[in-house]
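Regression check, farnesyl diphosphate case 253:
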Amino acid sequence: MAQSESSTLTIPSSGKIPRHIAIIMDGNGRWARQRMLPRIAGHRRGSEAVRELVENAARLGIEYVTLFAFSSENWRRPPEEVSMLMQLFISNLENEISRLHQAGIRVRIIGDLSRLGQRLETLIADAHQLTRNNKRLTLTVAVNYGGRWDILQAVNALLRDHPEKMREPVTEADLSPYLSMGDACEPDLFIRTGGEQRISNFLLWQLAYTELYFTDALWPDFNRASLEAAIRSYQQRERRFGRTSEQCCAPES
Ligand code: FPP
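Current build output:
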């Protein structure tokens, strides 16, 4: 697996447009409640916002978009909502995958997929297979995902493959290929909609030096202008990666 540049071991190159955006899509339920609609109507409109986001991200030249669709803690929701969300993932995959493939999008689903049921597991495997060589943008959807789960599964997989590491110090370079996003660059920009300011057990390892952006917009309302506003905010940040401001501004020698 290709190794990604670590923000703690190197200074990753960063340009005006983030290479990788990670998003917590919050506020679907409130969007629905404001309209006296059932919560699932908010999730459906949220899916439409995902479609628009992917189109806009591809147009802007963003290479990776990673979405938190269902956390390992979301099983605590009422069973009817969980079941409807799973149905929505199934219908989204069934209905969108060929369009995404034609648009050159590589689709990846990350998380503990063992609890999702056979139907979803098969659709996910088919989507990975169909789109695996696409280069325009990688869309990663985290389902039954938790950042702590990810680190633990990586440690366990590393020790399974390299039992000698039980007695040696484990390095970042050893561990990172085993993380779910091991082949992607770390997110440059994290966006959370819906007014909350939390990471909620998303990409705990990978967000080490990510720029954080929080907006009150509810996810179904997140549109092209919202994405452009988030990117404008990102463009005003000074990414120091532990250096001083003077070091960052120094002309290249
Ligand atoms: C959080 O809003 C949203 C979710 C837990 C589900 C996100 C799912 C989608 C956008 C559907 C489709 C996804 C893809 C990738 C096609 P919330 O329910 O917590 O909202 P609230 O805080 O207003 O109650």
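Comparison notes: Helices lie at 28-34, 39-60, 79-102, 118-131, 147-161, 172-175, 224-235, 245-249. The CA atoms of residues 245 and 251 lie 12 Å apart. No diff flagged against the previous build.
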